[in-house]
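A sample copied in:

***
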Amino acid sequence: MKIVGLELVVVGAPWRELTFVELSTDEGSTGVAEARMVNKTETLLACLRELGERYVIGRDPFDVEALVDCIERLEYGRPGEVAETALAMFEIACFDLMGKSLGVPVYQLLGGRVRDRIPAYANGWYQGAREPDEVADLARAVIERGYRALKIDPFGTARSQLSGAERRHSIGIVAAVREAVGPDVAIMVEMHGRFSPSEAVRVARLLEAYDIDWIEEPTLPENAGALRSVRQHTAIPIATGERVHHLPDVREFLELGVVDILQVDLTHAGGFLNMKRLAGWADIYYRQLAPHNVCGPVGTMANLHLAACTKNVRIVEHFNDFADPWVSELVDHAPVVDRQDGCFALPQDPGLGLALDHERCAARPRTHGRLLLFQPGWERRGQA
């Protein structure tokens, strides 16, 4: 079996663009993958075309180790966000082709299942006024959909420091959410790398009263030393890693013991093989994974396959019930969170288990939408 065709599809939403790749073979099968590229869709498309022509067309899709070596090593330049995203998309599509060829789900090719249900947490749900009462109402709606975990960034446009009034207001939002959802729902607090170490510590200490599941990117993610002072001054678990794209960049965070949950993104860090390597590495340090996932249905399904076969994946992030829920219509079988237990079911069909609906994709042309984190109202994600 040889890959003979490569097709790129971009779907636009108010705050993100979803890029899909389809690889077709000389046997008539098609493999699909997806990534949401952060504000650089055109750059990713150029990379996919260049590397696809160089390394993918003509390749047997089963030869994924060689594909990883080509893009990470033979290209010579150190791979970053764009190259690793392109690699992940090609590699995930190849696994889709392999699973379809063998008649098994992708997770069966990666070690087999270790669980039957995959916990989910909601993101993108707080698209209202940044006021405690309104956010609390939105949180109740999340729980009514069955979720047992949710994440929020309550900090507005904060950068580096908060005033006393803003600090109290932000903590008040979290307090209102905790009161609304009760003691048994996990709350994760996203910080988006906003704060200096000292401000992150002040905020974390105030959050401890609300039994927070983790604080995420309390400081900028490239400096493990800066994160160390936060780790030393709070008992709340720390999550980081969504902006790690090359696995060696994780080393210092693990060796210094400053991260509890690694959030490296499957679709931005080279794909399944790299994530399985990372999972084994993290397990040596007794750390868990909660992969960052801002994708639509294809990327989410890929994350479910990873979680199905990886014992230290803790939970899967999900935007698509709240932010642009129509993205589920872009495929024939979108993954769904069960309203009874807040979990995804284990995928059963060969490959990833879904296919693009090209007509529906074409009906959602590019928007050039971007996430503008430090502009007022960003949390509405382009919604009026």
Observations:
- The CA atoms of residues 20 and 34 lie 4 Å apart.
- The first strand starts at residue 3 and ends at 12.
- Residues 81-102 form the longest helix (22 residues).
